[in-house]
Amino acid sequence: MSESEINIQNVVASTKLADSFDLVKIESALDGAEYNKKKFPGMVYRVTDPKAAFLIFTSGKVVCTGAKNVEDVKTVIKNLGNKIESLGMDVEKNPEITIQNIVASADLGAKLNLNAIAIGFGFENIEYEPEQFPGLVYRIASPKIVVLIFSSGKLVVTGGKSPNDCNRGVEIVREQLEGMSLL
Questions:
Q1: Rounded alpha-carbon distances, angstroms, from residue 116 to 107, 131, 174
Q2: Average per-residue pLDDT for the chain
Q3: What confidence category does residue 3 fall into, taking pLDDT thresholds of 50, 70 and 90?
Q4: Taking Cα atoms as reference points, which of 120, 115, 119 lies closest to residue 135?
Q5: In terms of Cα–Cα distance, which of 99, 93, 98, 100 is closest to 17?
Q6: 99 burial type by CB count under 10 A (0-12 exposed, 13-18 middle, 19+ buried)
Q7: What are the C-alpha distances in Å from 168 to residues 9, 68, 179?
Q8: Was domain 13-99 assigned CATH 3.30.310.10?
Q9: Which residues contact 54 (CB under 8 A, 6 or more apart)?
Q10: CA-CA to 80 of 20 to 30 Å: which in 8, 12, 135, 137?
Q11: What is the phi/psi pair of residue 98, to 5°?
Q12: Positive or negative, the Cα torsion across 50, 53, 56, 60?
């Protein structure tokens, strides 16, 4: 399955842009930034092009969420660094960005019998309680991801550290279903 067959819904990444930040100063300079230390220890800041949201902490650490691909994460973090630097604060020039989680969706294009899949996959790596949740939860060891499988044939992949992890998860599910003649 090629990357174009998965749709990345969200990329969560973290980085350290500085040794410390003055969040009060940053909040006053960034349109739409929200910082209320009593409610949450970090500042929330949203950007629209490309779309993403940040949690910015006094420790200089930043969490970026909501981006649709890894390149957008790099772009918005670089843009944020430039904005903060323009306020006269020291910022790491080439921060190490760690992808924490990628959530993607895919469609196998066929209706699935989740009861048969639950039995076929064995109960070691799956959770299937249709009264609680309409999908089957399948935990894959390598890459370490979770795939939610729905009777509509739609999949949600979470826990990937790269788009390739998500693709591989979909491939594993497809291969197993085809091997059991359930797809």
A1: 19, 16, 15
A2: 94
A3: very low
A4: 115
A5: 93
A6: middle
A7: 16, 18, 16
A8: yes
A9: 43, 44, 45, 46, 47, 62, 63, 64, 65, 76, 80
A10: 8
A11: -110, 120
A12: negative
Q: Which CATH superfamily is domain 108-179 in?
A: TATA-Binding Protein (3.30.310.10)
CA dist., res. 175 & res. 183, Å (int): 9
The amino acid occupying position 5 is E
Distance CA 103, CA 159 (A): 7
Nearest one of 165, 53, 50 to 106, comparing CA atoms:
165
Residue length of the chain: 183
Residue boundaries of the structural domains of the chain = 13-99, 108-179
Question: pLDDT band for position 122 (50/70/90)?
Answer: confident
